[in-house]
Design goal:
- This protein is an alpha/beta fold.
- It has 2 domains: 137 residues, no CATH class; 171 residues, no CATH class.
- The protein has 12 helices and 7 strands.
- A 5-stranded mixed sheet has the order 1-2-3-6-5, sandwiched between helices. Strands 4-7 form a two-stranded parallel ribbon.
- Helix 1 runs antiparallel to helix 2, helix 2 crosses helix 5 and helix 3 packs across helix 5.
- The two termini are 40 Å apart.
- The model has no long low-confidence stretch (mean pLDDT 86).
């Protein structure tokens, strides 16, 4: 895993590569940057988190403002929203089949120069740079919640699965508390400010609730899964209600899988992206954790049949 400093250096180098391109080659370099970024899990998490800060942004209308010299301005209210707008332009330039038209269309609307290379540079300086700056700042500052929770999944599965399960077996009636406390300890070590429920909303008290006044809030539910899908469905709906109570558009459901079989969870996103469901204006990320220690080595255990959970059984469990 790249360190934060490595990512910052790499981002600055990628920006420099874009900045020195002419109008004929900027599209190609932009596509190379996007391909590189797609392989950086932490950066992808930051981009996805930024997109949910201002979900009401009309990106298509804003992008049309580049044409006809109408005058340029950002339609966003936050740095995250501005980064989201810039990312849309970067994707449009990278996707341009002609390789030059996107650069000319966006760059010419920004620059008063008749020199096409000047227009390309203006595009990078005024549109690309805020996007790069946002990533550089947030890699070193607030960590992406999605990235941190993914690290928690790996931490449990690789290092403490057996210890947590022993503690769970000692008090199964309060077993969820064992994993809830493990998550809180991990979040505290990762720099999350006071990872505890601090206020009771109209829907009750969430498992982990913090940083509500930031662009990277954490509204998280922890549920155990031993075979009954209704527990996951209940956690999903609780997460949605808590997010709505606090005016947030993202939440997280950590699923401690004690069934001993892989979970095949539904998702409203692409197969390669983190699994999530969009419900009532809230995106809930599903974070399954293999919490049951293996009884035998993986080489001898054979292939476990996955438990397939359909979207309807979580969204409307009574009718599924």
């Amino acid at each position: 895993m790249r360190t934060e400093q490595d990512l910052q250096v790499a981002l600055r180098e990628r920006y420099r590569r874009c900045l020195v391109q002419g109008f004929e080659t900027l599209s190609h370099e932009t596509a190379l940057f996007r391909e590189w970024l797609s392989k950086q899990a932490k950066l992808i998490s930051l981009v996805e988190d930024a997109a949910r800060v201002e979900p009401e942004l009309d990106i298509d209308t804003w992008m049309k403002s580049f044409y006809g010299h109408y005058g340029f301005n950002w339609h966003s209210r936050t740095e995250a929203g501005r980064a989201t707008l810039a990312w849309a332009v970067i994707n449009a330039v990278a996707d341009d089949p002609q390789g030059q038209q996107g650069v000319l269309s966006f760059g010419h609307g920004l620059s008063s120069s008749n020199n096409l290379n000047d227009s390309a540079r203006e595009l990078v300086e005024r549109i690309y740079q805020p996007f790069f700056d946002y990533l550089i700042d947030h890699v070193a500052g607030e960590s992406s919640v999605l990235y941190i929770l993914d690290r928690f999944v790996r931490y449990v599965e690789w290092f403490v699965r057996e210890d947590l399960y022993i503690a769970y077996q000692a008090d199964t009636a309060n077993g969820e508390r064992v994993y809830d406390q493990a998550l809180r300890r991990f979040l505290f070590r990762e720099g999350i400010n006071m990872p505890y429920s601090q206020a009771k909303s109209a829907s009750g008290l969430s498992d982990v609730l913090t940083d509500l006044d930031t662009e990277d809030p954490l509204i998280c539910e922890v549920k155990l899964f031993t075979g009954d899908k209704r527990g996951i469905a209940g956690g999903l709906h609780q997460a949605v209600l808590y997010a709505q109570d606090y005016g947030k558009n993202s939440a997280y459901l950590v699923i401690m899988n004690l069934s001993g079989r892989p979970l095949n969870l539904p998702s409203d996103g692409p197969e390669s992206a983190p699994r999530y469901l969009d419900l009532s204006g809230v995106r809930v990320y599903l974070m399954p954790v293999r919490a049951l220690p293996p009884e035998t080595s993986a080489s001898k255990a054979g292939k476990a049949k996955p438990i397939v959970i359909m979207r309807d059984s979580l969204v409307d469990p009574d009718s599924a």
